[in-house]
Specification:
- By secondary structure, the chain is mainly alpha-helical.
- The chain has a single domain (2-125), classed as Fertility Inhibition Protein O, Chain: A, Domain 1 (Orthogonal Bundle), CATH 1.10.1710.
- The chain contains 6 helices and 2 strands, in the order H-H-H-H-E-E-H-H.
- The chain has helices at 2-22, 41-45, 51-62, 65-70, 90-105, 111-127, and strands at 76-78, 84-87.
Length: 141
């Protein structure tokens, strides 16, 4: 499962690099330069790249922390040429802030905590006795 996710991540990065070469005013490899994209920009990009390739790349691009921080109420959205194409609404900005807040709450566990939890779980499993079915015989006459 992790290998498949890693391949998707790499494919997404490669696609973002390709988009940055094709549209240098809209897509940026350097995460801190990312700006809000036009709503429905995927419809414009399907003419250039297949949807299967674009889907994960756009999820990766728009789910990036720097991109979410750029989604502020009233911020200009850009099209493929870098021109203004709408603005970020208050609802979109609130959703982005919510996603950022939930990310900050999730704290990764250290390796020691993971090993300790796994060891305790394994020991508890070993200490359990297997439940046996009662040996009941019915005598018929």
């Amino acid at each position: 499962m992790k290998a498949k996710l890693k391949r998707k991540h790499q494919a997404g990065d490669e696609t973002i690099s390709k988009l940055a070469q094709l549209y240098p005013r809209a897509f940026f490899v350097f995460e801190q330069r990312r700006r809000p994209l036009k709503v429905g920009i995927h419809n414009d990009l399907v003419a250039v790249l297949p949807w299967r390739v674009l889907r994960y790349a756009l999820m990766h691009y728009t789910g990036n922390t720097a991109y979410l921080r750029a989604l502020r109420t009233g911020a200009a959205r850009i099209d493929l040429q870098g021109n203004a194409a709408g603005a970020v609404t208050a609802d979109e900005a609130a959703k982005a802030q919510l996603r950022l807040a939930t990310r900050k709450q999730a704290t990764p566990r250290s390796k020691q905590q993971i090993v300790t939890t796994a060891l305790a779980s394994w020991q508890a499993h070993k200490q359990r006795k297997p439940q046996r079915k009662p040996n009941i015989r019915v005598w018929r006459s």
